[in-house]
Amino acid sequence: MPRIKFLKKLILAALALIVVRLFFIQVIEHNYWVSKAASQQTLLETIVAKRGDIYVMEGDEPVKVVMNQKVYSIIIDPQVTKKDELKALLEKHAAEYITANIDEVYEVEGLRYSVVAKNVPRDVAAKISEEGVGGVWFQENNKRVYSEGEMAAQTLGFVNSDGIGQYGIEGALNEQLAGKNGLLKTISDVNNIALSIGSDNVKIPAVDGEDVVLTLDRGLQKATEEVLADALSRNTDGATNAAAIIMDPNTGEVFSMASVPTYDPAKYDQVQDWTAYLNYVTEVPYEPASVCKTFVFAAALNEGVMTPWSTYYNTGSTVVETATINNASKSPAVYGTIDMWTALSWSLNTGSIQALKWLGGDADNVNEAGRQKLYEYYQKFRLGRATGIEVAEADGIVHTPNEEGLYAPNLTYAEMTFGQGTSLTMLQVASAFSGIVNGGYMMTPTVVKGTMKDGVLVPKKYEEKDDTQVISSDTSATMREMLHEARSLYLKKDNPGYYIGGKSGTGQVYLEDLGRYSDPDGETTATYIGFGGVEGELPKYVIMVKIWGSGANASAVDSKNVFDELSDLTIDYLKIKPRS
Prior knowledge:
Blueprint: H1 2-28, H2 30-41, E1 42-47, E2 54-58, E3 61-76, H3 83-93, H4 102-105, E4 114-121, H5 122-130, E5 136-146, H6 153-156, E6 158-159, E7 165-166, H7 168-172, H8 174-178, E8 182-188, E9 194-195, E10 202-204, E11 211-217, H9 218-234, E12 241-247, E13 254-260, H10 293-303, E14 311-314, E15 317-320, E16 323-326, E17 336-339, H11 340-345, H12 349-359, H13 368-380, H14 409-416, H15 426-437, E18 448-453, E19 456-459, H16 473-487, E20 499-508, E21 510-511, E22 516-517, E23 524-533, E24 541-548, H17 556-573
Parallel strand pairs: 2-11
Antiparallel strand pairs: 1-8, 2-3, 3-4, 3-5, 6-7, 8-9, 8-10, 11-18, 12-13, 12-24, 14-17, 15-16, 18-19, 20-23, 21-22, 23-24
Helix pairs in contact: 9-17, 10-12, 10-16, 12-13
């Protein structure tokens, strides 16, 4: 009997404990256990937005060059799937797409969600699905396809394995292209299959990214890259790199922008040298050499302190703050009293320094007033600062007239007139040059033409030209004529009916380890910039070319020859008719 009483008491005590525990679970800890259950029964799935496509122009028609291919990420619930079964499944069908260490995934205690493979093609995903393994599901994603291979790689950029745009338009307009992911929250079964029951179901639709249309002309872009690559293959001076930009000086639209060597955006992870990603037109400032003479000549003309017929006495060199600056040309034709036509055509350093002296009101000396005036024009031309184009760009360096710590400011500014002592991007130079030859207006360069909506191009709105000009239309016309005259010194004659002008620049390279510039017959960078169109009209295009390489003695003749080829191609692609 005592035993029965003891057992009754023991049972009652156990029941009391159960009741108390149930009370705690159902009342005191109710919210905790509901949350715990929900975490195992609720499926949270990202609805991936479709990344916008990218188009370029082919004549007047947009052509798609970057698009999406549907691929899948494989996601598992380690609490449901068996490790060995999963490993066998993935190795059988998707070994090359595995992105996680399966053993390490199963070592994480309580893990219910893990991405184990990415960029799995539809047919492979279908085969895995047919195996019917529980706790495995698929998330649809988009993989970028670059249909033109290496074309415009530095301008386009790429999308990395996490779906984030890098470099170029893909990086700069990543948010616009990517759109916004949606969310599906619903009750799921043991195999993480969504069930259409429950009052807490949530579905937030994805917002697809915008389709972007670039100003690049497909044919001209390809031709530009081919011309640059061919020029490097022929080069005997050791040049290893080349870059070019072709733009409309009247709107700022970029027709082509290229750097070689280049890469395939679809194989970005196979690039051996990361500098291949760089857009040398916008991201890498350099000393552009004598093409900068265009800016100081335009400033002096616009200020009325100089005309093309103004003269000075050229001895072949000039002294600024005890430093002797020489001309590259030793031709007898440029010594003695010469005019500014001759100074620009023969690219005389003494000529650009003379223009700076006149800007300061002293025909014999460079002074603070001249420095200040040239700096004002460099600011108007937006040199040494970002232009506002849609891809990544560098600022560069333009020293202020009285910059603290600047050694020999008069000498620095004298050297700036022929493109030393300052650091500019190709885009800045091409944009400023455009402002000089297009009637005097600075246009913000752009590589985005608009967006595609329902198969229709919606053009980007451009700012109208206002009444503010950086130089007068008369100064602009005079500069066009002086640049046309400067080009005429070269042996190649341009096709009849076309009006083309330009300026070359051969820059010595500053050698950091030696603390000085290279010798004239040492490493140099070759540049040529020019415009083209028909006489009596504003230019239709501006082209800038740069050729360089470590240790290379690049020649301005090489860059000018590339300009000639690109100029002829541009005339054809833009269908510019000659004046009869």
